[in-house]
Amino acid sequence: MSEPWALVDGQAGEQLSIRDRGLHYGDGLFETVRREGGRLRWFDRHLERLALGCERLGLAPPDAGLLRAEADAVASESPRAIVKIILTRGAATARGYRPRGDERPTRIVCAYDWPPAPPAEFRAGLSAVRLGINPQLAGIKHLNRLEQVLAQRAAARRELHEVLMLSSTGGAVVGGSMSNLFAWRGDALQTPPVADCGVAGIMRSLVLEAAAALGIPVRIAALPVAELSGIQSLFVTNVRLGAQPIHWYEDRRLVEDARTAQLADWVHGTPA
Amino acid sequence: MSEPWALVDGQAGEQLSIRDRGLHYGDGLFETVRREGGRLRWFDRHLERLALGCERLGLAPPDAGLLRAEADAVASESPRAIVKIILTRGAATARGYRPRGDERPTRIVCAYDWPPAPPAEFRAGLSAVRLGINPQLAGIKHLNRLEQVLAQRAAARRELHEVLMLSSTGGAVVGGSMSNLFAWRGDALQTPPVADCGVAGIMRSLVLEAAAALGIPVRIAALPVAELSGIQSLFVTNVRLGAQPIHWYEDRRLVEDARTAQLADWVHGTPA
Known about the structure:
The structure is a homodimer. The first copy, chain A, has helices spanning about 20-25, 45-55, 65-75, 145-155, 200-215, 260-270; strands at about 5-10, 10, 15, 30-35, 40, 80-90, 105-115, 125, 160-165, 170-175, 180-185, 190, 220, 225, 235-240, 240-245, 250, 250-255. The first copy, chain A, is built from six helices and 18 strands.
């Protein structure tokens, strides 16, 4: 599977109309789903976040059963794969930002090879690119991702695997460019809120549940960048990486906390 | 010309690869160009802004002569048309936000019918959607336009033609969702800066030059929303509308300043 196999509105194909508002404005949503051992992991949670995104953008959510069947279909030949779902408002029926309301959403489902294992030493740094604040777009996984692209482009030049991003105003760390951030603070686990910017990651929600199940106190609280220097153990989360310890933050070696692996194990063992 | 006629990388067609990073991340730029009497208006300025966007995003700018020829070609059969240019980083060569650097930009040029004349009474209001601050993305015309889409969607429900948008922090008006804003303040003309968010409109730059040429003092300064109530005359600008007086702002009737039409005439008379 060197090429992703894709369904566009249920039809095998890899083409999209250049009139699609997903292209013109990033007017749409996406989900990145893990498929292992012949099953989609945590698909209900992906559906739930997609539904929230649809509500915010005013899109009709796709049929859940149909979407699940398509996500299974594109990856059916691989023992494990990453399935990406893109839902846009569809081809424009008029020029300009204003939706006319008669657009028909475009549904793209495609499979990607399982990514290579993460590096033995995961390096992170601080991004100079910041995240604009917009509560109406925060949390959901929409297609406006230039801030993340610019952050990752600069991270590549510094040979970093991930970069932490601050919000555009103030000095609080929101998370990684492609991940949520967790910090071990003594007995407790801390992660920043995502109400103003950032994404409410599926793995983030799973780790929060794991912590509750394992009796680890959790604090969802702003993390001023100045406090990072006093923190010995950080990890980032996304569906692909799971709970990934940061081994180096800028030039400082961090400590891997054993509880991070316990959380990851708990998450991996969850049904669905 | 009820269908736009389009060139994708120089070939007639209306399809794009679903791998295009313009779709996945809004990783690209656009320009909306006016073509009248067989010529592209202010094309050098569009090229200049596109080049700035390319620099910010790390894209190779397209050949200027080629782009001009394509923009002429798609609209050659119409006395006047709107030509839209989209330039993306191209089809992804790997999964994820990080560009690999070996992508080949996608160039889309398409023509749209000349839009209907603006309404006799142009109505504007204040948007509840705000603009996230990001100096690296401000000024340029990138493809991350969900804030504008949400603002226009809400504006449609209120039967407004345009809405003014504040930045995410503070109470300053940045501009319209699809336009730049100008206010007559006594003898002088004021327009907000676009260094933190908003677009550096081609028509905005032309109006600023017109004002200088006509001896009208100009102030580029933040416009606190609280000051709007004391302003009697506002207009918005974009390449399509030119300099469009706002007749109603929320429930208040504004006054059309005769100098607005003088500025528009000066701009219309500029060469190219």
